[in-house]
Amino acid sequence: MVDTFANVSKEGSIAIIHLDHPPANTLSSATIENLRVIFQELAEDKETNAIIITGTGRFFVAGADIKEFVSAFGQQEKALQMAEAGQALCDEIEAMKKPVIAAINGPALGGGLELALGCHFRIASSNAILGLPELKLGLLPTFGGTQRLSRITNQAKALQLILTSKQLSADEALRLGIIQLVTEPEELLPTAKAVAQSFVDGKSMTSVARTIECVMQGGNVHLQKGLELERTRFAELFLTEDAKEGVQAFIEKRQPEFKHS
């Protein structure tokens, strides 16, 4: 695995990505490309069932690499390419068929918060701060922040947070539903691992993958389209060995032995 700006370790079926781009884990174009490769490889790794992404050092991700913006002034196409790369990373994370958990160990600002919003579940250390401060630079969030934040909260709240550039504490973000859990710093990774295990232990990855797809895609389409996707994926499971095993194990009052097929 390429790990120039991120180190990947495995604990059982859980992969842990440690962003490591000192001093603030900024999302440079090289870091974004690095992460895209890592997620693509983990998507294909049959031994990986869940993924945690966290930061090394004090920061989760301080944002995009602002120094790279300087070379794009006067070049709309270059700016568009930068936005497309960041959006592609977050889209690919959201589209993963394995649970992806953001373990936010410190400041998650700008592109850092947008990266976390692309994950399926977010846990923050009590000392984390979260925000989208791009308007203070005369810019706007462009790695999906204007879209995902409004879907996770609501349009009025997202607009308020973006226009004020307000930095939220972990507890404030929890109340708004932006994150799902707050822990003490030393408990962040153990909690993330426990959550990851709870998502996949004793489950068939064939149904886990389809469930993630239904929930994540369903939130972006009309209800009837979402219901159509749900019943289609449900029916597909009746062609799998795992569904047959799971139902039979329930009838026989034993633990299922899933083969993830």
TrEMBL record:
One of its GO terms (biological process) is fatty acid beta-oxidation. It holds the Pfam family ECH_1. The keyword Lyase applies. Keywords: Lyase. InterPro entries: ClpP/crotonase-like_dom_sf, Enoyl-CoA_hyd/isom_CS, Enoyl-CoA_hydra/iso, Enoyl-CoA_hydra_C. GO terms for molecular function: hydro-lyase activity. The keyword Hydrolase does not apply. Belongs to the enoyl-CoA hydratase/isomerase family. This is Enoyl-CoA hydratase.
